[in-house]
Amino acid sequence: MAEESNGSKWEGKSIVELQSTSANQAWPLLEDFFNIHNLIPIDTCYQVESVEGHPGPTRYCASAPKGAHGGADDHVLWVKERLLSVDQGQRCLSYDVVDGNLGFNNYVGTIKVVPSPSSLEGCKIEWSFVTDPLETWSFKDLTSYIDSSLQFMAKKIELACSKASV
Predict the structure, then answer these.
(1) PANTHER family of this UniProt entry (predicted)?
(2) What is the mean pLDDT of residues 142-159?
């Protein structure tokens, strides 16, 4: 569920609850910064050299829009994201967008895994963000993308954890 935008910045948070996957099971899948393509519907993600002036491990994530044909790079939607911090104890990581063709400026995202208060076996995943308004997407489009990606992510994590426990 997204929050209201705040003045000149957009802020939002989506939360999903996993009923049968603990925070300790989910966190290792999420902290693997360079394999996010295994959890959300994007085509590729891999480590690249750090962007000059932006120290820290950087990943390149890309997808071709649905129905795109041909191999032209201008049809590929891409971002370079830099890992800002990882807190193992809090099961939390933060990243920012340092380059791309999606119109992000000053975007910082945080993904956190917390034990579920309503289930001894479950957990919650929270994906929050702060960004300058985008020219290419509306606030509603951005929050809808994050909501749907988080739902997809939750299903992938539950499936991976259920296979691991068999």
Answers:
(1) LACHRYMATORY-FACTOR SYNTHASE, OS05G0202300 PROTEIN
(2) 96
